[in-house]
Amino acid sequence: MAEDTRYDVVVIGSGPGGYVCAIRAAQLGLRTACVEVYPTRGGTCLNVGCIPSKALLESSERVAALEHGLAEHGVSVEGVSFDLAAMMKRKDDIVGKLTGGVAQLLKKNKIASITGRGRIVDANTVVVTKEDGAEERLATDAIVIATGSKPSPLPGVEVDKDRVVDSTGALALPEVPKHLVLIGAGVIGLELGSVWARLGAKVTVLEYLDRILPGVDGEIAKAAQKVLAAQGLEFVLGARVQKAEVDGAEVTVTWKDAEGGEHSVVGDRVLLAVGRRPYTEGLGCAEAGVELDKRGRVVVDGDYQTSVPGIFAIGDVIAGPMLAHKAEDEGIAVAENLAGHAGHVNYAAIPSIVYTHPEIAGVGKTEEELEAEGVPYEKGRFRFGPNGRAMALGETEGLVKVLAHKETDRILGCHILGARAGDLIAEVAVAIELGASAEDLARSVHAHPTLSEIVREAALDVARRALHK
After folding, report:
1. What is the pLDDT of residue 5?
2. Do 306 and 261 belong together in one domain?
3. Does one domain contain both 332 and 375?
4. Are residues 14 and 126 in the same domain?
5. Which residue, 229, 272, 274, is CA-closest to 251?
6. Which has the closest alpha carbon to 188: 155, 158, 219, 215?
């Protein structure tokens, strides 16, 4: 084994949290290394998550628009077809550019980019095992765990990467399924289910809960279910999946309803999407004394330090929403704290987005959370339908809901179902970050005609003075 190489900070994992943490640390003058077990950089998000799924979502939306969305614009298209292999190549090309870009950013910032499996020995030592079995010891003053997450399993459903796939496999199916059985109506499942439904698959969604999109504002989730059902997704709620049995090119999925009655459905592919779990296997947490909670997440304090001083953790391996941008900001905060600055993340202002069509986005508290916490609030709502820009786009489905404190008018949350919701939510995230009131948002001039006017109208409606309602 080679002599130890010394660093100020070693980051394990090169996903959005890890590589951004490494870059910020390097910017602040810390000698930094970033360890990644896979040959490409960017983690789950860039390789098999956020980016490839959005590429396929966009391609499938183009197909759907050609087949169903152009007639009202006076555009006639005949003989629409698509090349699945070309779609997959475009997706892979985008992934290649972005992962290559991350590698270049690490190099540009003079970060040691080390390929191999990192294992924590103690607070000052990381051993990296290379593909050929050789080991390299890294001495460091601080370690940041940023290893992300992986798909959660489900008893009775074995992922064989052929007929039964997880989210990674669903991004690379060799053909459009005739009947895709989707287990789980969360963000990942509905996004990928939407892709294959647009491309011609029948999609049956089995969800254990009595609603879709757990964590999303209830009113928005209910409205989204109606829209997605109209697009052809068939929902079975309260379905406790028991097993999936493969027989040649068919898979039979069996579930029980709330009363214990047994049902089954047969498809040619099954997508298991029941959430994700922290990826800490082989990391050496137990041996190093790093505490994990009952769900396998790394336990951290307010500064992201673990039970072992000098070892920190961010992103999907700790509690909180599993979002790339959350991990990024936590990585920045840790790097700044290590360099003697005051890093901080405002969790009240972290947006989340579901890239179905239309999109679903939210930031801050949901209405259910405010009711459970006993917080007095006022609600403003405005639909996409009356908006001129929405009409011009042919995207009149959806609504914006703004939640503000009943006494102070401070914005507590905003939830959107509609076209470009992921972009629209940004102004409310900034408003919450700056402590703005609904009145502040309502009195800010919004360009006309734009979809952002819907956000303003919803803010106006908090005081019951929407102008176009």
Report:
1. 86
2. no
3. no
4. yes
5. 272
6. 215
Query: Where does a domain end: 221, 254, 274?
Result: 274
Q: Are residues 124 and 180 in the same domain?
A: no
Q: Is 300 in the same domain as 366?
A: no
Q: How far apart are CA 8 and CA 194, in angstroms?
A: 45
d(CA 192, CA 87): 14
Q: Which of 68, 263, 341, 448 is catalytic?
A: 448
Say what the pLDDT of residue 1 is: 44
286 and 266 in a single domain? The answer is: no
Q: At 147, which CATH number?
A: 3.50.50.60
Q: Which two tokens stand for residue 213?
A: 């999109």
pLDDT digits (tens, 9 = 90+) for 396-455: 999 999 999 999 999 999 999 999 999 999 999 999 999 999 999 999 999 999 999 999
Q: Are residues 225 and 99 in the same domain?
A: no
Residue 224 CA, chain-centre distance (Å), reads 17
> Do 260 and 406 belong to one domain?
no
418: domain range? 349-462
- Please report whether residue 221 resides in a domain: yes
Domain containing residue 406: CATH number: 3.30.390.30
Looking at the domain assignment, is residue 314 inside a domain?
yes
Torsion of the alpha carbons at 206, 364, 149 and 54, rounded to the nearest 10: 70
Number of neighbouring beta carbons within 10 Å of residue 199:
19
Report if residue 158 sits inside a domain.
no
- Cα angle for residues 444, 449, 453 (degrees, 5° grid): 40
For tokens 């408003």, what's the residue? 431
Averaged pLDDT, 172-178: 98
Q: Given pLDDT bands bounded at 50, 70 and 90, which one contains residue 233? A: very high
264 is a domain residue: yes
Q: For residues 243 and 158, is the Cβ–Cβ distance under 8 A?
A: no
325 noted as active-site residue: no
Give pLDDT tens digits for 71-86. 999 999 999 999 999 9
Last residue of a domain, one of 304, 326, 345: 345
